[in-house]
Fold:
Amino acid sequence: PLNAVIGFSEVLVAGADAKLVPEYAGAIEEAGRHLLSLIDDILDITRAEEGRLPVQKERVAVAPLLRAAGRMMAGQAEAAGLALALEEPPALPALSADSRRLRQVLLNLLSNAIKFTPSGGRVALSATQDAAGLRIEVRDSGIGIGAADMGRLFQPFAQVENAASRRFAGSGLGLYLCRVLVEAQGGTLELHSAEGQGTLARIAFPPHLLLL
Structure:
């Protein structure tokens, strides 16, 4: 994104066609916001590693949060030619968590699922509760992850290295940051996948964090 900011700025300074100024200015703004989000991610990771990540625990209504995340990603899924499904039981308990951070995790996981699922596929967001606690899952029918890459994905700046995944740009911070944010709230995040067979991301919160 910084290359885009500098490149488009240089074109504007050199005297771009007036008709192209709004387009170039928009590209600079978009790249700047992308860069800001990357910096925010890096700062969150640094704070977490130093034990300073701010987490505001509150009573979170899980079902409305899932529905909101689904609505926010519906346009991206539709543009990618995917079916996005929300599967939830009739009643879910409230959760002691940070709603903003949990929403950030869900949007990141959904974005990954959509990015790595070919057109015509399916992404599902679901939640279940039992004696083991609360589980929130994002499942996709995408390209999946090979066994050799699974151990690397929760390392900062790590990405899957195969011919299919190289089509998709990214910082490699997403999954690492998701796990950091979930663990800061007292939960766990796991991935289950196989190459060519889709991916399941599972967030689990223990019973003592549920508010009945």
Summary: Residues 111 and 180 are 17 Å apart (CA to CA). The first strand starts at residue 58 and ends at 60. Strands lie at 58-60, 83-87, 94-97, 122-130, 133-140, 188-193, 199-205, 210-211. The helical segments are 2-13, 21-49, 62-79, 99-115, 147-150, 174-184.
